[in-house]
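To: structure desk
From: M.T.
Subject: fold request, one chain
Message: Could you run this one when you get a chance? Sequence is below, nothing fancy, just the single chain.
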Amino acid sequence: MKSVMLNRRMGRSRFSVFDTLNITALLALMVVTLYPFVNMAAVSLNQAVDTTLGSNFIWPRKFTLYNYKVILKDSIIYQAFMISVLRTVVGTFTSVFCTAMLAYTLSRKEYILRSPISMIFVFTMYFSGGLIPVFMLIKSLGLTNSFWVYIIPGLVSAFNLIIMRSFIDGLPEDLVESAKIDGANDFTVFIRVVLPLCMPAIATVSLFVAVGQWNSWIDTFLYNSANSNLSTLQYELLKKIQSANLSIGGSATSAFLNQQNAQANMVTPVSMRAAITMLATVPILLVYPFLQKYFIKGMTLGGVKE
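Reply: Done. Structure tokens follow.
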């Protein structure tokens, strides 16, 4: 009896030690992960000249919204924001729907071309045509200076296709057979049976596509840089960072000779980068909590096979 009690006490002691070490390690990881973002937010809300005195802080010492005011005073930012939102919404919806439809097709065992087509998509994950051939293809298709250049080239991703197909392969085949016995065709089965059951995978792929669409700027630079009406937020913010580095480069060192009110009405490349980073990141952070539950489920798919 005494040995049993002793073993229980030792077990609780080991468990508490492990718990303490585990919680400590996770807290340290959380601090390391969150600090850069919190610091960036503080820098974006701090006076630019004061930031040059030392940027290792998590709270703005001299609060100001002037950094954001400088960025948002340009009217093209609002137009670019609307284009980014539009491409994110349209691009995410069309990409997820087409990817799910193709994944369902390739998951059908009766489709004789499923293996060759799957291999072709996997091949594109390792090899690409290169920048110049892709540019020539986009130009020959007449997609330059067009909104659809943001949508059509990335309509189906091989990685997202694998995620969707893996999830669909794990669905009970009896559901599809029952729907077909009731007279449903493949498209009806896909819309009414498969899609409602694929919400975890759809949420995961939607988040990947939405983040990619929102953060993309290279396609704007390559194909739509001549048309300001189709410019995206990320591309406009990138141009502002470049202009800040060129025009404000040495102003921070001479700023200490100015008056206090003059210091409050100036920006530096560091403060502008911080404000731009926050403007580009916050919209995605606002969307993520609504998809987190499905995202976690989608990321664990295929982990356990019965």
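Reply (cont.): The chain has two domains: 2-72+248-299, 76-229. Let me know if you need anything else for the meeting.
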